[in-house]
Amino acid sequence: MNSPDSDGLLAEQLLRLTRRVHRIQKRHLEHRDLGITPAQSRLLRTLAHWGTPPRMADLAERLEVVPRAVTTLVDGLEASGKVRRAPDPVNRRVIRIELTDDGRSALRELRAARRSAAEEILAPLTEEQREALGGLLNTLIDGTPVRQC
Q: Which of 23, 26, 99, 4 is nearest to 59 (CA)?
């Protein structure tokens, strides 16, 4: 059984690792000089996973932020040519957010920066350790306990 102290230690280690991941990803983004904040990066990644261009309210819900925050992010990305606002073909009162070619190009750079950051973070691990870590992370993400035979 885990004691409360060991669970607290694990929680602290996870938080420290999360902060380290963010710092390293931010550094890799800055080296690529994309002029995109981590929050804008997250919005672009979220936008890329939509089949059809979403509404701002859809983005706010998916990102779990208030709509005003999405407006600010979209304003910045639109000013830099990464996204555009487009009228909904069915309801002209609705505005949808689309990736531009520059936005797709930025996404490719963002993915490369994230891969570089992941390589840096995982460098000390062997292949076996990476596989074990992947399994453990999947269990934590899914929230389902691993059953011992």
A: 99
Query: For residues 85 and 43, what is the distance between their CA atoms, to the nearest angstrom?
Result: 14
Q: Could you tell me the pLDDT band of residue 148, with boundaries at 50, 70 and 90?
A: low
Q: What is the DSSP letter of 115?
A: H
Q: What is the pLDDT of residues 102-134, one digit of tens each?
A: 999 999 999 998 899 899 999 999 999 999 999
What distance in Å separates the CA atoms of residue 147 and residue 89, rounded to the nearest whole number?
50
The secondary structure of 26-50, three-state, reads: HHHHHHHCCCCCHHHHHHHHHHHCC
pTM (global) more than 0.70: yes
* Cα 48 to the center of its chain, rounded Å: 11
Two tokens, residue 64: 């779990």
| Phi, psi (degrees; rounded to nearest 5) at 53 | -55, 130
Terminal CA-CA length for the chain: 17
Q: What is the pLDDT of residues 11-68, one digit of tens each?
A: 999 999 989 988 888 888 888 888 888 889 999 999 999 989 999 999 999 999 999 9
CB burial readout 81-118, b (16+ within 10 A) else e: ebbbeeeeeeeeeeebbebeeebeebbebbeebbebbe
